[in-house]
Design a protein that fits this description.
Layout: H1 8-15, H2 18-25, E1 30-34, E2 37-40, E3 53-56, E4 61-64, E5 69-71, H3 73-82, H4 93-105, H5 116-148, H6 151-161, H7 165-170, E6 174-175, H8 181-187, H9 192-196, E7 201-203, E8 210-212, E9 218-224, E10 227-234, E11 250-252, E12 284-288, H10 291-299, E13 304-306, H11 314-323, E14 329-333, H12 341-355, E15 360-363
Parallel strand pairs: 12-13, 12-14, 14-15
Antiparallel strand pairs: 1-2, 2-3, 3-4, 4-5, 6-9, 7-8, 9-10, 10-11
Bound molecules: zinc ion (ZN).
C-alpha cells in the first residue's frame, strides 16, 4: 500500500472520481449520462423523472432534488449505503465506513491503521477544511448574487472579456460589493474566527468585527475536488483607488504568517483556476496565464485552466505535473508583451512539463491579441 501523506482526505478525493464510484455502486440506477454528469433514479425515493439524483464529475459533487440532500464523494457512498448523510464532528459510523471503503479503492491504508496522533491531525484538518469551504461557499454565493444583479458589472465584464451571464453561472463568478456580507455570514452561522480563517477578511483592532479584503472586484473562485479552496479578485473601475488597492490588478488571499495569524494553514496558493476541468479526462488543455482567458476558452469549448501567474513558482511545479499526468496534449499560452516575459516563461513552463514526460506545445499570440487586451 502507498505510504500516506499528510493530507489523507485530499489524497483520497484526488485519487478517485465520483462518476466512477457512482457507476460502480449503483449501476442499475443510471438513467441518463451527459457530458460529465450522471442522472440517476434515486434509490431512496420514488421519482417520476427517474433523474432526480445528479452526480457532477467536474465539481465532484452530487445532489438529489427529491431528497434535498447532496454532498461530496464520501457522502455519496454514505448516502448509497444508508440513505442519509452526516456533517461535521464527531464522525458518524456510516461516514467512517464510507471513507474506509473508498480508501481501499484508492489504495490508501484505512485511517485507523495510522498512528492515533496522525489520525487525529487528519481529522482536525478535515473538520477545518469543511468549515473553510462552507464559509467560502457562502461568500461566493453572496458575491455571485451581487454580480448578476448589477448590470454595470455584467456589461463591463462582457465588454472586457466577452463574459456572458452563463459564464458567471458556470464559474460561480462574483462581484465583491460587500454591503451586507458580514451580516449574511453571521446569519449563516459562521463564527468570526471561522470567517477569518479563509484569509479573505481581517479583524478590526478590537477583534469585534471583520473587514473584507476584496473591494468591488470581480471574484474568481478556485475549485479543487469540488470544494472552493481559494479566491482571486480582479480590479474593476469601481475598485477604490486607495494605497491598498491601487496598482493591484489581482488581489489574492492572505496566507498564514506572523502578520496574519488568524488565517488557516490550509489556505494555500498552489491551486490552479479551473483545475477540476481535468477530471473530465480531456484530450487536451490550454494553460493560460490570465484567469479570464481560461474562462473565455472554456466558454468556447476549449478545456482550459489558469496558473494565475506569468511564472509558475518552483514550489507548485510538482503539483502542476501531477495534475497534468494523464492529459495527452498540453498547450501553454501566456500573454504577449514587448518585454517577452510572457513567451519566455511559457517556454520555461513548457520545458519543465516536457521533462516530466508530457506532450507540450507553446501558443504564441500576436501582439495585443490576449483576451485581456
Ligand atoms: Zn432522492
Amino acid at each position: 500500500m502507498k505510504q500516506s501523506t499528510n493530507n489523507y482526505y485530499q489524497e483520497l478525493k484526488s485519487a478517485l472520481d465520483i462518476i466512477e464510484v457512482a457507476r460502480g455502486l449503483l449501476p442499475e440506477r443510471i438513467t441518463y449520462s451527459h457530458a460529465d454528469k450522471l442522472y440517476m433514479d434515486c434509490p431512496m425515493h420514488n421519482s417520476t423523472s427517474k433523474r432526480s439524483l445528479v452526480v457532477d464529475g467536474t465539481r465532484q459533487l452530487w445532489n438529489c432534488f427529491g431528497c434535498g440532500l447532496g454532498g461530496d464523494l464520501i457522502q455519496f457512498v454514505q448516502f448509497a449505503n444508508t440513505g442519509k448523510i452526516t456533517h461535521g464532528t464527531p464522525l458518524s459510523a456510516s461516514h467512517k465506513e464510507a471513507r474506509d471503503f473508498l480508501a481501499l479503492r484508492a489504495n490508501l491504508p484505512p485511517l485507523q491503521e495510522l498512528s492515533p496522533e496522525l489520525a487525529k491531525k487528519m481529522e482536525d484538518e478535515r473538520a477545518e477544511r469543511e468549515k473553510i469551504s462552507s464559509v467560502f461557499a457562502d461568500v461566493v454565493y453572496f458575491f455571485h448574487n451581487k454580480a448578476i444583479n448589477n448590470g454595470d458589472v455584467l456589461n463591463w465584464a462582457h465588454e472586457k472579456w466577452g463574459f456572458t451571464q452563463e459564464a458567471f453561472e458556470r464559474f460561480s463568478l462574483g462581484y465583491s460589493d460587500n454591503e451586507g456580507l458580514t451580516d449574511y455570514l453571521d446569519k449563516r452561522g459562521h463564527s468570526l474566527a471561522d470567517i477569518a480563517m479563509t484569509g479573505a477578511f481581517s479583524f478590526s483592532a478590537d477583534r469585534s468585527s471583520l473587514f473584507p479584503l476584496l473591494k468591488n472586484r470581480i471574484v474568481f473562485p478556485f475549485f479543487s475536488g469540488g470544494q472552493i479552496v481559494y479566491l482571486s479578485g480582479r480590479q474593476t473601475p469601481w475598485t477604490p483607488d486607495d494605497d491598498f488597492n491601487s496598482g493591484k490588478k489581482y488581489l489574492k488571499l492572505m496566507l498564514k504568517s506572523e502578520k496574519h495569524p488568524d488565517v488557516s494553514e490550509l489556505i494555500r496558493n498552489d491551486y490552479f483556476f479551473n483545475e477540476d476541468t481535468l477530471r473530465r479526462r480531456i484530450e487536451k488543455i490550454v494553460i493560460t496565464e490570465g484567469i479570464p482567458d481560461a474562462v473565455a476558452l472554456e466558454m468556447n469549448g476549449f478545456p482550459s485552466m489558469s496558473t494565475a501567474t506569468v511564472k509558475v513558482p518552483t514550489g507548485i511545479e510538482k503539483r502542476l505535473k501531477h495534475l497534468l499526468r494523464e492529459t495527452p496534449k498540453i498547450y501553454v499560452c501566456n500573454d504577449t508583451e514587448d518585454s517577452g516575459i510572457g513567451i519566455n516563461n511559457a517556454i520555461e513552463t513548457g520545458l519543465m512539463l516536457e521533462r516530466a514526460g508530457l506532450d507540450v506545445r507553446i501558443i504564441e499570440l500576436p501582439m495585443a491579441g490576449g483576451f485581456d487586451e
